[in-house]
Design goal:
globular, binds iron/sulfur cluster, alpha/beta, 5 helices
Amino acid sequence: MEYKEIRVKNILVKCGIPGIDFVINPYMGCRFACKYCYASFMGRFVGKQISDWGNYVHIKINAPELLIKEIKKLKNKGKDKEIFISSVTDPYQGIEAKYKLTRQCLEILAEYQIHLLMDMVIFHKEFQERPSKGNMAKIVKN
Ligand code: SF4
């Protein structure tokens, strides 16, 4: 299994899914390699084959700092935006326990009072590192 820290140029990516403005993927790749996964094509952006899906996870270590910068650039600091976490990776796969990128991104979105449960969808397969009750309460409140 390849785990690699990377730095990306942006983290809020415009999204073509109806009703969704941006997507955040804190990781590239996914350890689960579900047979039904549509995201294996993402490997082409990092020199991987579709058959490599499930064998690598790249960790976007600058995701939180970028998210703050990008939210600040949005009109109304993104309060009217729909944000989808995450479309091509599992945001709570095991490595999240170490890096907590998904958690940090959620906390930032909450801090900026983006309406998380109303405006955000979280897809994930693994439940080990869900937001703490305190953080979730904050998210719900917002
Ligand atoms: S957990 Fe999600 S992103 Fe990961 S392989 Fe399965 S469907 Fe794809």
